[in-house]
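Sequence in, structure out.
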Amino acid sequence: MDNKSLASLPVRRPVLTTVIFLMIMVIGLFSLTRLPIDLMPEITMPTVTVITTYDGAGPLEIEELVSRPIEASLSALQGIEEITSTSTEGRSTVRVTFPWGTDQDAAINDMRDRIDRVMAVLPDGVDRPMIRRFDVSAMPIMILGVMGEGKDMAELQQILEDQVQYRLERVPGVATVDIRGGRRRQIQVALRAASMEAYGISTDMVVSALRRENRNVPAGSVIAGNRDIMIRTLAEYTGVEDVYGTVVAVKDGVPVRISDIAEVFDGFEEIRSLVRINGQPGIRLSVSKQSGSNTVAVAQGVEREINRIHQDIPELEILTLIDNAKYVERAMMSVTQALLLGGAIAIFVLMLFLRNISTTVIISVSIPISIVATFALVYFAGFTLNMMTFGGLALGIGMLLDNAIVVLDNIFHKREQGMEAKEGAVRGTSEVLSAVIASTITTLVVFIPVIFMRGMSGIMFQSLAFVVGFSLVCSLLVAITLVPMLSSRYLSTKSLNRPIGDKSPIGRVFNASEKFYVAIERRYRRIIRWSLRNRATVIVSIALMFVLSLLALPTVGVDLVPATDESDVRINLEMEIGTKLDRLDETVKLV
């Protein structure tokens, strides 16, 4: 199919062309309503962490007995870039970093096999290691503070665990709700050293007895007539009396119970963290969203559920301390305003240059169609509406008009030469068809290397490259199909130029812009003539500017993303290791 026949198809089939673009608009707008909104693209770092808990052990014991065996076992995995470990009181954290592009599911399965082998080497009492992959989307999107009028911390925490936590977790898009602060009920067993020595009982015997007795055990089944009845022994502790009656050992035929060697108290866990809200004790809730969920929609759903909780439990006061969705909304609104403002300015400049309402409207159609069609790509490609995708649209909004301007300008000239509407549209489009396609391809080639980038930069900028490239392709299709079709029916060659003496506001604007354009053309003509007479000077000047630019490049700062202002101030305090919590609390109060 030659250029002329390709350009004539939309002109001869205006209804088909209109229906196709209406379908594209409907699909794009429908996709827009389904797109999740986030600040940045989803980033899954190639890092897997192994967390192991060993209560009561110091950092040195954790390193020798837990961290080093796990490190030695995992170091045999293929493709590992780095292994680091952190050993603290009662906790070992081993972090394994893989190259970008590694299949993390397969790597985690290999790590799980290695950990199963090393379990026999780890000391008794060590909890089974937990494997967690690093996921930015797993970070909390909201931090809530809870205070209760007339409630102590233990009662307040119980209310949150029984009545609030599950309600927030069932909000669509919420993954987990973590509770921090407060106090938990704990049955404490205070051993008497003299009694234990007299009975010959060790601490391990007491711990083993408590673990053995405090559980429900299945006892098989009994067939009674036509029924098969499952039986289990109910032995979980329900109160302090049950703990007192636990048999630790039998000495000379006499059972030795907990009551003989210890005191049992119904108390609370040791406080290891404090939360204050506006200077008053409180509890903190961290809300994390599911991967791929809409950050803004999840936060709004949590806010609605909080309002319902306030109505059902009026004694609770739940405050939003940190809400990342607000920052996302502000950032996206800023980019959206820049996008709309850029499009409006582009259309206004077109109006000043073209001085023709029909040509301005026809060219301006390419902006919303190309953008709305790109939303369909974002949806079906699994991207999110974020700073990078919106930034790609804002970046390409000026380029979206280039093809339409070239095509319409040539059609306009054909009409000025006396051709009728349809013939001028077909001839004008066919003459520049190869040029606009080549121009678009050369622009797309610039973004092709970005698609093949790896690592963090690749994840960040791949969506931008896809969005810019697809919007340019859409603008090309609009320029060679919709623009000639509209031009064949609605293009008017009548100019809006006003007489020199026109004193109306529009006339003054057009006359002033005419003088400005004439001045630019005059000066540009002079520059061209001077450049042609002084070719050596022009070439040397450009080469010198290029060299100076290369020399200035090392002085330019390098960063992955620009610094942002969340309108939020956070202060982190670090005190000497071993500082008591009360001392830290007093220091925080002063701050």
